[in-house]
Specification:
This protein is α+β, with helices and mostly antiparallel strands. The protein has 2 domains: 17-48 and 132-304, Multidrug efflux transporter AcrB transmembrane fold (Up-down Bundle), CATH 1.20.1640.10; 55-128, Alpha-Beta Plaits (2-Layer Sandwich). The chain is 72% helix and 8% strand. The protein is built from 12 helices and 6 strands. Strands 3-4-2-5 form a 4-stranded antiparallel beta sheet. A two-stranded parallel ribbon has the order 1-6. A hairpin with a 3-residue loop joins strand 3 and strand 4. Helix 1 (6-12) runs antiparallel to helix 10 and helix 2 packs across helix 11 (270-302). The radius of gyration is 27 Å and the shape is elongated. The two termini are 34 Å apart.
């Protein structure tokens, strides 16, 4: 298949990728990824930041200190919990602990200041109580549920209820995969992560709406014209928007990849990686789901309707008759020879 002019040929129907016809393959592929995500969540779980579970974080500016030194300093103060120690860039060390009493927090600050030769005031300290973290987690979950409900209502009113159901299934699919990858790689879930989740959900829905708008256009009078089945018309709509979706996603992925791999990876800007990973994985999953999950599910739902079943039977009978006529013509030509 020549890539030159591919978009135009797909749009005119001269070339077609049978996406709807191969829907079972896409369902199976997504099922594997969702199962892996559930397994990762069950085994490793999410590494929640202190904003959600409560705790204390100490950020020390030092060019000579090491992670091992910081961990030993915390242990020397009598803290017996699990301390998460990581470097930020080339000159900062961040130590995260569980919820501390004020006296224990002050002891850790004093020990860090003495070990790394800095003042106590220069240590960036963050203390979050467990009740505050629980409240933030509850608000984040409520915000996600409200988002999904509002989107479902909007899509049901703008398009049709079955399109709303298909779109929400695709969004849940994206959330599962993104959250599963977060659990797998062990990245910390922070408020930036939640912002990233909401952003990619919006992007995924935008991509799905573009596809559904074309589906609606192609199937507006399909039962009266009877030129093609609902699956065939949906497949044409997906092919017509395929190149646009790919190009849009690629352009969006380039700056996100720069933030993730260059900013967070090479330059060590750790505060960016939580947001960047959610955006990077979510953009890929959102593009995939809008094409290979949402549209096929919509076709499945619509093909259960009596009117669409009757349409499919008429088209199949006509296309079967056309095949028989063509076969008869070929046989007559062979006998004439």
């Amino acid at each position: 298949m020549k890539l030159s002019g591919l978009g135009g040929r797909l749009y005119r129907g001269e070339t077609s990728i049978n996406i709807i016809g191969a829907r079972k393959k896409w369902y199976a592929l997504s099922g594997v990824f969702v199962a892996l995500s559930i397994f990762a969540l069950a085994v490793q779980g999410l590494h929640l930041g202190i904003e959600f579970k409560g705790g204390s974080a100490f950020t020390v500016t030092t060019t000579s200190g090491t992670v091992e030194e910081a961990r030993s300093v915390v242990a020397s103060t009598g803290y017996t919990g699990n301390a998460i120690v990581q470097t930020i860039g080339n000159d900062k060390i961040r130590i995260q602990t569980g919820v501390l009493e004020p006296a224990q927090s002050n002891a850790i600050q004093d020990a860090l200041a003495a070990k790394f030769g800095v003042s106590v005031e220069s240590i960036d300290t963050q203390n979050v109580g467990p009740s505050w973290g629980e409240e933030i987690s509850k608000k984040a979950f409520q915000g996600l549920i409200a988002f999904l409900i509002c989107i479902m209502i909007y899509l049901a009113l703008t398009f049709e209820p079955k399109m709303a159901v298909a779109a929400i299934v695709a969004v849940i699919h994206d959330v599962f995969i993104t959250v599963g990858i977060y659990a797998l790689v062990g990245f910390e879930v922070t408020p930036s992560t939640v912002i990233g989740f909401l952003t990619i959900l919006g992007y995924s829905l935008y991509d799905t709406v573009v596809v559904f708008d074309k589906v609606r256009e192609n199937t507006r009078s399909i039962t009266s014209t009877g030129k093609s089945t609902y699956a065939q018309a949906t497949n044409l709509a997906v092919n017509q928007t395929l190149v646009r979706s790919m190009n849009t996603s690629l352009i969006a992925l380039l700056p996100v990849a720069a933030i993730l791999f260059v900013g967070a990876g090479l330059l060590g800007a750790g505060t960016l990686k939580d947001l960047a990973l959610a955006l990077f994985i979510g953009l890929i999953a959102g593009t995939y789901s809008s094409i290979f999950i949402a549209a096929p599910i919509l076709a499945n739902l619509r093909e259960r309707e009596p009117a669409i079943k009757a349409l499919n039977q008429r088209v199949a009978a006509r296309q079967g008759g056309s095949v028989a006529v063509e076969s008869s013509k070929r046989n007559r030509k062979k006998r004439g020879k």
